[in-house]
Predict the 3D structure of the following.
Amino acid sequence: MKSCLICKSPIEPFINFGNMPLGNGFLLPEQFGDEYHFPMRVGFCAACGMVQLLDQPDRERMFHENYAFFSGTSRYMAHHFRAFADQVITSRLPGKDPFVVEMGSNDGIMLQNFAASGIRHLGIEPSKNVAQVAIEKGITTITDFFDADVARRIVAEHGQADAFLAANVMCHIPYLHSIVEGIGILLKPTGVAMFEDPYLGDVIEKTSYDQIYDEHTFLFSVASISYLFEQYGMEVIDVQPQTTHGGSMRYVIAHKGALPVLPHVAAQKKKEQDIGLHLPETYSRFRRNCESSREHLMALLRDLKSRGKRVVGYGATSKSTTIINYCGITPDLVEFISDTTPIKQGKFSPGAHIPVRPYEEFVQNYPDFALLFAWNHVHEIMEKEESFRVGGGKWIVYVPQVAILD
Ligand code: SAH
Ligand code: TYD
């Protein structure tokens, strides 16, 4: 039996997705033969509340010099991170010469706002190609994996930080104990850690099971995050729900007793109890919902094929790797996936090997249906793709339910 990565209690899977490729493992035909797969099973720890993958690929397989995810591909996300940075600058950097550290800074989408305001900052980003984009923008970045040792090095070289930031990366890290220890070392006595990740409550309520893939080791809740940080003398002082990535939660953490704890922390924990995030049966129900979503989506795609309709995927997201391989979507059902990221274009999707083509091919020859894999960017995309809809094109979505949008 596996043990919980956070509290070491025995833990069993509530869903088994089978052998899965890497979510961002877009590849060329000559690489099909030795494509990597891992058993993707998810468990809920009834002792500490953490939902987690039971097996994790080595980190170097996922984060390297050819990492396929560039944060800057979404204009909306650039706007989101500017607002995040503004919140930090106006309310969390009181003293003179403040210092901000970001883990998983990617192409600098967040830190560019601090750099523009002349604020001392440091990004920690192990994927060399995306880190290079940030460095070229003038953002101070070290290419490394953050952990407690790196935190000690940062303190020795730059001093302690007023703010430690992280977006969509805490949940990627199986060795979270070392990260949280590192945050404790890095933060000034009244410093704050602010991080956001896809929220367990949203995943359960929307059956957005595509948030589960190799990089997402954990799905956090306020309860599980509170438990984890308490082990290291810290506490959650605020929680702020976000609409990004289909429903995320921003957690604000401080050394215990250093700053006031806002009332909505307790309110959100109560809400989590009300929706049953602490109960094993919630996860059995989630599994049944995933199975039913898979049946509906496949029935729809098969029906469209039998009627001779063309279906193209929109957005070669890492999330789509779970949908495609769990449902069994093949290139005869989805002709290609349109994506604006140059490093993904001309490659094939992990596992099912559906071609990924430049966005221009979507526009030049509109399909009958577009399967919205980048559903978390729905507003940005609908606005941009008005002429597809006006020309009679239809969108297929599967979160929260499989449906054709009118
Ligand atoms: N913060 C960005 C990027 C998220 S993708 C955004 O929200 O858009 C996750 C990033 O975390 C990747 O760029 C990956 O290389 C990086 N990463 C993974 N493990 C890390 C670690 N231990 N320390 C720092 N960065 C890490
Ligand atoms: P995203 O949903 O942010 O990430 P994840 O990989 O974490 O699931 O990825 C969005 C993908 O969709 C990315 O490859 C870029 C692509 N994309 C488009 O092709 N067109 C668009 O208009 C947008 C917003 C994204």
Summary: The pocket of S-adenosyl-L-homocysteine (ligand 1) is lined by residues 63, 67, 69, 71, 103-104, 106, 109, 124-127, 130, 145-146, 167-169, 172-173 (CB under 6 Å). The mean pLDDT is 96. The chain has three domains: 2-53, 71-262, 281-405. DSSP finds 14 helices and 19 strands in the chain.
